[in-house]
Amino acid sequence: MKKERTGDNCRPFKLAHQILSLTGISFERRSVIGFVELTIVPLTDNLRYIRLNAKQCRIYRVCLNDQYEANFQYFDPFLDICQSDPNTRSLEVFSQYHLSAAQKIDPDHNSGELHIQVPDDAAHLVGEGRGLRIGIEFSLESPQGGMHFVVPEGEGTLTEKSAHMFTYGHSARLWFPCVDSFAEPCTWKLEFTVDEALTAVSCGEMLDVVYTPDHRRKTFHYVVNTPACAPNIAVAIGPFETYVDPHMNEVTHYCLPNLMQILKNTVRYLHEAFEFYEETLSTRYPYPCYKQVFVDETEDDSTAYTTMSILSTHLLHSIAIIDQTYISRKAMAQAVAEQFFGCFITMQNWSDLWLAKGIPEYLCGLYSKKCFGNNEYRYLVHQELQEVVAYEEQYGGMVLDPWQPPASGARVESKDVYYFPVRNVHTMSPRYVEVMRKKSHLVLRMLEQRIGQELLLQVFNKQLSLATNAANTKIGSGFWGQLLLSTNLFVKAIFTVTGKDMAVFVDQWVRTGGHAKFQLTSVFNRKRNTIELEIRQDSVHERGIRKYVGPLLVQLQELDGTFKHTLQIENTVVKADITCHSKSRRNKKKKIPLCTGEEVDMDLSAMDDSPVLWIRLDPEMSLLRSTVISQPDYQWQYQLRHERDVTAQSEAIDALHNYPEPATRKALTDTIENEQTYYKIRCRAAHCLTKVANAMISSWAGPPAMLTIFRKMFGSFAAPHIIKQNNFDNLQHYFLQKTIPVAMAGLRNIHGICPPEVVRFLLDLFKYNDNSKNHFSDNYYKAALVDALAATITPVISVLQPGAPITADSLSADTKLVLEEITRVLNLEKVLPCYKNTVTVSCLRAIRRLQQCGHLPSIPAVFRAYAQYGQYIDVRLAAFECLVDFVRVDGKPEDLSSLLTAVENDPDPGVRHGLARLLVSMPPFERAQRHRLDTEAVVHRLWNQINSQLSNDARLRCDLVDLYYTLYGLKRPICVPLPEIQAMMKQMHNKERERLERERERMERDREKRDRERELEAKPVIKQEIDEVSVKYEMDVAPMEPLPKPEVPRDDNLPIPIASIKEEDNVDVTTVPDLPVRVYSSDYSKREFVSDNAVPLPGMSGSLGPVGFEPGMFRHDKDDLGAPKAKKKKKDKKKHKHKHKHKHSNKDKSKEHKDKDKSLPPRPPSSTEHLKIKEETRETLSSFSSSQSPSEDIASMPSNMSF
Amino acid sequence: MTENTEKPESSCDARRRILNIAVSTVLLETGFESSDRIALETLTEVIQCFFTEVGNSAKSYCELTGRTEPVLGDVMMALINMGISVQGIEQYAARPKRHVIQPPQQASVPRTPAMLSAGSKAKPPPHIPFHLPPLPDPHAYIRTPTHKQPVTEYEAIREKAASQKKDIERALTKFLAKTSETHNLFNTDDNQVYPLIACKPTFPPYLSCLLPTDQVFDFDELEYHFQVANRTEDLPADKKDQSDNEGDNGGDNENSSQPEIIDIPMSSPERLKSGG
To answer: Which residue ranges traverse the bilayer (chain B) (predicted)?
Structure first.
């Protein structure tokens, strides 16, 4: 192995100092004119090329030592990533090019977009250890990424409108030429010349503010004496109001005009975070100052830079707001933690990203443990663990440090687990980064368990003190490398501090991906008084799961107390007999000691003779694992009631979903009522009780679940059915008061609808809601009530004619009440908007829910209006969510296209990103289902974006890569045929055309005859109310014979052309466009379409009988537009024209649906079955109720709904 | 006739009506079949004046003789003094075929509105003989409440407050929906039933959302409460007691449920309106 090449030693120079000066900052033109000067120290004498990073800048001049103008070249591979293979549309190929593009300009590979050639006459300037100054003049216009101008529309001066700008992300190259690496720290001098009314906030200490000679502008001078790397440099410019923290005057907060009051409230606890970190790490905060700038339209809630954080203005809240407080405090605490690790100490390579992200996450976790309590912390860790496990099982094991293979264990993951390269942060999926953050946190927490928290903190402390010392030296001393941290250095530091070698741990959890998965079963052996455990790792070959070898803690709660047993896991199946400490006799009077040392009384009547109350695996979450524990229902109930650990309680709740029975109901009810239980567990228990109650609805007696609890807790004394005036002083009750109505709204009676009692209860909550005496705002509560109303809505049971338009009069009584309430609160929000318009957000979702269930016509107009720029961000995202769902169900290609336009062009980067994520999570169409939206144009459009258009916005590009993967997978999309095949097909078309011309005439004659015959027959066609089903049905029934095997690979079963690639000699083949559509009620025409070679259609395998291939089957709607019209004309003359039209409209539709449905596995043609699927996909009922025309269907409709 | 009293007017009317009837009867007896209204009125007026004069005169005679109530003789004297012959008056009164006027209906005595009854009447103590009148309302000798006792039933109050708030909100939103652009949830043109007020983009959009106006809080007071609340956190026992009490006395008396703050009356009208 060659010498390790790291991010800091790959360049032939070191960066000593950089000056950045932005002068012409224009909000009108969204442009910046600037100048940078990098002082580099060459490491060799013959440095001829200097490679720097710069993107989307226009570079005017490069000057060495102010004297020599240097030539430069500019090259950005992201402008056309697949340049050498322009026709590929497969993500596999893209992924490779993507990585190589990223590496071609990666400063850690000594590359960059900007190649500066040291001119010959300046060669004497270069000398080892002699500083060389490179001055670059540049400008930037309408930046697409990295820097954002917020210029609101409307009247008034820019200041009045609070126009401001800021930089975002960690890609400094997007706004100034630099060495855009975390491994190249240097000192900085920053100057920003801005309008007189504006303030520039940037990294470092502010030295001076100097007016320009004309007194209309001023220049802010900042200096960063602690070495910082370019990605950690940021600036925010705007008419900010300034607030110096009253507890720590080194800390300054900036907000946009008019927000001072809520700013003061939001930041009131920030000093505690500082104190906590300084105390925990026993290190001083490494910088002389800290600034928080709250700006609008950020991508993330908070981003940390050297000595400053840029935060979203949406974190601000007044003292009366509850829910936001948690989020804001955490976001700010996280940003402060990143000052220590991430800004001050940065990573050496991309491979060390997990440390730079994980350590602040870990520190922030400790802070939230202190701030919000141990339950909250454990619950958070548990949630993160589940999230990581779920992600890994979906996408594959995540290797935190993939650069260096694990030293020992030969298990090397195949390199391309993911559809995106994980070796560069610019190519990683944003979701991956998010999950990686969480996994890093978990791994560091595991490390804490291995070596102890104190020692781990000492390791951090050591790194920080080394770095502090290094930061005070000059570049010449060569100590600046200690500001960088890498996996190896970290392992070494642990060894130095603790004497423990953690290499194995790192190999196991950092350099290997995946998690363990244990299945535990147990049997009690009465004779020997042992419990026989079996721990299996059956699914080690599944995605994201790997075999674990090592110790595993099993915790048994017995009658006599909690006992821990450490088992050695050596194989995929481990059996262990554990002798029980307690005798199985029931000593009823005795109290049972718990793991916390408390002794409690339990009702042991449910137990059998085993003394074990419950079993837990790895209770401290010291492994990355998922567990499947099989134990009887009563053990889960005991665990929920008596185990004190929130993770155990939460697991018990998950398990109890499967045991709908009175005992479970009782356990859940008691949990909800138990004031000692953590509130999130109580809320989850409420939701679980909903499911349990629904499952045992037939035997449920008494009032709806939770109604009594709610009245007891929140009903007023004199009249329990009227809720008390709101008083949110008890926050646990507040969260329950928000949750229980939503949980109750999920209840269903035997008819599958929400019990009318519950609806009335909810409407009463609206009516009697009185917040006049409350100290807190009830906006989240009101939003929860709207959510609850939405959750009561079940698919419509319509007595209307299916095709009839839905009007206000045709609504059911309950729906009218619900809709009235929703419109009232939504309208009220226009006059009296609540905090963050939470009610509007919920109302939009509720309206969409009404549309989905067929109560309202599926009209996107409302959502479009709310999605406009100029609405509040949360409202916009909610509206986009509804639109995405609409497109999925009822959308036309134009609707999808307008969403994509928003992804590409929306002014707010947060919305672009958010909308892209929405599209990924709710894709507009399923992969390879020949959906009507799955068109070639969409492929090319997305491809174009990821390949070239989004060269300056890495995050959005990766978002769209995610979307592309969701829609098309790794291979070439099915709807885009390979060009060769396309050409071939064209040729064939030509050849065949003549022959077809001949045939067409014959066909015409045939068809006329056939039509006539069919009319005579005029049998009633089987009509189901859902067209897809009828198609399926007909296809299965049709006595079709097999047909020629298409010569195309099965993967590429192409939409149009297959029909035309049949063998030449197959005379019967016809591609005449105006064929009558498939209603195979007679054998008459069959023979023409059919040949003897059989092949089932790709998606149809396993269907009964041979399923045939019909010419024209894959045609687009466009093709058969002409034909039926022509035919109708003919038919107009005939007698039964009415009937015919009917048939036809039905057929045309079935064709549309067929395209979509073709590759679904065949389903039995029962319409109830189908309906179930409908519900799952949450299609709008109205969409199909209005799409069907035959009136015969009315009768069948309600019965099919089977509610 | 004065306007301020209604009773005399109506009784006056009644007498006059009787006179009217009497005159009409005489007219009928005389052989008239109809009369102009004005003529009838004139005759009535004449007879009224006559009776008044007779009455006054008779009263004077009676007082002259030192009595207080006129007797028949006084009337006679008055008539004679007025130069009216009283002969034949008896025969006239007993004439045959005379019309008999129905005695006027006893006008129901308009109930005197009950005195503002407040409280229940106390039973007379035993030392007061039973035949004495009952005691008057307590307010007459204990105290007189100057305002109506408010409805104290909790449920009714809540009900009323809720429906008032709802009505106000509904009226407001309806008005706004009628006077501004709306979104339509249906495909029909008619958008009367569930109109949604159209949303307008505002710039900057965050201001109204971060500084909401749905409720008016007194932030100084909240700050105070916040600090007090923080302090009570240190005393969990107290706090717990408080919350227990709170559960018990429920909403019956909301003010007492927050004893830890001095309830500064906040700008309640707006808050009531917008509380929901």
So the answer is: none
For A484-519, b/e burial (b = at least 16 CB within 10 A) is bbbbbbbbebbeebbeeebbebbbbbbbbbbbbbbb
Q: Is the pLDDT of residue A294 over 90?
A: yes
Q: Which of A263-277, A896-910, A1012-1026, B40-54 has the lowest mean pLDDT?
A: A1012-1026
With both helix axes pointing from N to C terminus, report the angle between A873-890 and A909-921 in degrees, rounded to the nearest 10: 30
Report the C-alpha gap between A949 and A1167 in whole angstroms: 46
Q: What is the ipTM of this complex?
A: 0.73
**CB-nearest partner of A722 from B155, B202, B257:** B155
Distances (CA, A) of A406 to A452, A467, A495, A505, A811: 24, 28, 18, 10, 64
Contact at CB, B275 and A861, closer than 8 angstroms:
no
- Residue-wise pLDDT for A669-685, tens only, equals 999 999 999 999 999 99
Domain ranges of chain B: 11-94, 154-230
Chain A CB within 8 Å of residue B209 CB? yes
Contact A277, A285 (CB under 8 A): yes
Whether A762 contacts A742, CB under 8 Å:
no
Average per-residue pLDDT for chain A: 82
* CA distance, residue B113 to nearest chain A CA (Å): 36
- Chain A's closest residue to B257, CA to CA, is A727
- Is the CB of A847 inside 8 Å of chain B's CB atoms? yes
Chain A, window 520-579: residues with a beta carbon less than 8 angstroms from a chain B beta carbon = none
Query: Which of A824-828, A1096-1100, B20-24, B133-137 is predicted most confidently?
Result: A824-828
Shortest Cα distance, chain A CAs vs residue B150, angstroms: 17
pLDDT at B6 over 50: no
Q: Which residues of B touch A872 (CB under 8 A)?
A: 205-206, 208-209
Kind and range of the H or E run holding A871:
none
Give domain B11-94's CATH architecture.
Orthogonal Bundle (1.10)
Pairing label, strands A251-255, A290-295: parallel
Provide the pairing of β-strand A199-202 with A147-150.
unpaired
Following DSSP, what letter does each residue of A731-755 receive, concatenated? HHHHHHHHHHHHHHHT---TTSS--
- End-to-end CA gap in chain A: 69
Residue B155 near chain A (CB below 8 Å): yes
d(C-alpha A978, C-alpha A446), whole Å: 49
Per the structure block, which two tokens stand in for A30? 């969204």
Q: Measured between alpha carbons, how far apart are the two ends of chain B, in Å?
A: 57
Contacting A residues, span 684-743, partner chain B, CB-CB under 8 Å:
715-719, 722, 724-725, 727, 729-730
Give the three-class secondary structure for B196.
Answer: strand
A1026 vs A1029: CA distance, rounded Å: 6
Longest Cα separation, chain B: 111
The per-residue pLDDT for A1 is: 39
Q: What is the pLDDT of residues B121-169, one digit of tens each?
A: 777 788 888 888 888 777 777 766 667 767 778 888 899 999 999 999 9
Q: Inter-chain contact A729–B229, Cβ cutoff 8 Å?
A: yes
Query: In a mutagenesis test of the B interface, which of A763, A832, A858 is the best target, namely the one with the most B β-carbons within 10 Å?
Result: A832
pLDDT digits (tens, 9 = 90+) for A785-801: 999 999 999 988 766 56
Judged by a CB distance cut-off of 8 A, whether residue B100 touches chain A is: no
Note whether B202 contacts A: Cβ–Cβ < 8 A. Answer: yes
Q: Which two tokens stand for residue A887?
A: 């497109």
Q: Is the peptide bond before A12 cis (omega within 30 degrees of 0)?
A: no
pLDDT tens-digit series, residues A338-368: 999 999 999 998 889 999 999 999 999 999 9
| pLDDT band for position A256 (cuts 50, 70, 90) | very high
The β-bridge relationship of strands A217-228 and A57-64 is: unpaired
